[in-house]
Design a protein that fits this description.
Largest sheet: 6 strands, mixed
Distance between the termini: 34 Å
CATH architecture of the largest domain: 3-Layer(aba) Sandwich
CATH class of the largest domain: Alpha Beta
Number of domains: 2
CATH superfamily of the largest domain: von Willebrand factor, type A domain
Number of strands: 14
Strand order of the largest sheet: 7-6-5-8-9-10
Structural class: alpha/beta
Low-confidence stretches: 1-62
Order of helices and strands: EEEEEHEEHHEHEHEHEEEE
Strand content: 15-25%
Oligomer: single chain
């Protein structure tokens, strides 16, 4: 069960080049695109010499290298791969930084599934389970996963494992009941992620509304999210705005998940049609496999423990439509 004894969190920082620029369509979210077959991703062939060691994506206090994962999409929300280092600019506190490391390979992931089984999920549970199954189809053998379920409280029901069947078996017996301790579940997921063996980390949150039963507050969780080197993706299964019995917390759920996710470089995907759930989950899995990682040594060498704001800009390739980047918006500098 969730240990609500609050603990200090150490600030952590966010974590070859293609011959030509091309736009790879892994999933289209334009109208009607969800009818496509499920996505299955084959790992890219490594182009790194055996004796070369890539930098890890987690930044510790004794490191002066900041690594920022970046997703790039086109106007149809399709992922764009094949960009070069010269297509990116990184600014920290409004000062441009020199990009010294650049990668776009499919690295192993540590992922926590945060699964809502509160009373309002009822008829949504079956499609939510299927969504997790589709997300797992994009997994690689080196990946690891854990499962947190939440209703009145949050519970770690499956610690880190490479056996996906263990998590799916746990979900099979999930029952819908109780209220929604969403913030406590995110806290528990961030805490469990400290045990991750892979440098790239992400949480996948599947929920149908806001929080109404957590002991942790929104400001507390937002601060923890800033400090943690974890991307958060969320699938929000929302009732219609005019739906009867929709509580203020449920109405605020979309904004809450969007703010938390985008702060980490992830995204929140709203779902109105339950049949879209599995495809959206697969799309998130594909996105995690197709990110760029930009590394730089900050011009500001001060170890002052302050929050540094990061902005990623694109140098638009010729002949391409306007592209949009998504990235983790900042990190805390080391305190000593």
């Amino acid at each position: 069960m969730l240990n609500l004894e609050k603990k200090g969190w150490q600030a952590m920082r966010p974590s070859y080049r293609s011959l030509c620029v091309f736009s790879a369509i892994f999933w289209a979210v334009a109208a009607g695109a969800f009818a496509q077959p499920p996505v299955a991703i084959a790992p890219r062939a490594s182009t790194v010499p055996k004796n070369e060691v890539l930098p890890k994506a987690n930044i510790r206090v004794d490191s002066n290298l900041v690594l920022i994962p970046v997703t790039v999409t086109d106007p149809l929300n399709r992922f764009v791969t094949g960009l070069d280092k010269e297509n990116f600019k990184v600014l920290e506190d409004k000062k441009e930084q020199a990009i010294s490391q650049f990668s776009s390979e499919d690295a192993p992931l540590s992922v926590g599934v945060i699964f809502d089984c509160s009373g309002s999920m009822g008829h949504k549970l079956e499609k939510s389970r299927l969504a997790v199954s589709q997300f797992f189809k994009t997994a690689n053998p080196e990946d690891e996963f854990f499962l947190v379920q939440f209703s009145d409280s949050a519970e770690l029901v499956q610690p880190f494992t490479g056996n996906l069947e263990e998590i799916q078996n746990r979900l099979t017996f999930t029952q819908s009941k109780g209220r929604t301790a969403l913030l406590d579940a995110i806290y528990l997921g961030l805490h469990e992620m400290k045990k991750a063996k892979n440098p790239r980390k992400a949480l996948l949150v599947i929920s149908d509304g806001g929080d109404n039963n957590s002991r942790y507050t929104e400001p507390e969780i937002k601060n923890l999210v800033k400090e943690a080197d974890v991307q958060i993706y969320a699938i929000g299964i929302y009732e219609a705005m005019a739906a009867r019995g929709r509580t203020p917390e449920e109405a605020a759920g979309q904004g809450l998940l969007t703010e938390i996710a985008e702060q980490t470089g992830g995204r929140q995907y709203p779902v109105d049609n339950l049949n879209e759930l599995p495809d959206v989950a697969a799309k998130i899995g594909v996105e995690l496999r197709n990110q760029y990682v930009l590394g730089y040594s900050p011009l500001n060498k001060e170890h002052d423990g302050k929050y540094r704001h990061v902005v990623v800009k694109l140098v638009q390739p010729r002949g391409m439509p306007t592209l949009r980047p998504f990235w983790k918006q900042g990190y805390y500098a080391p305190a000593q």
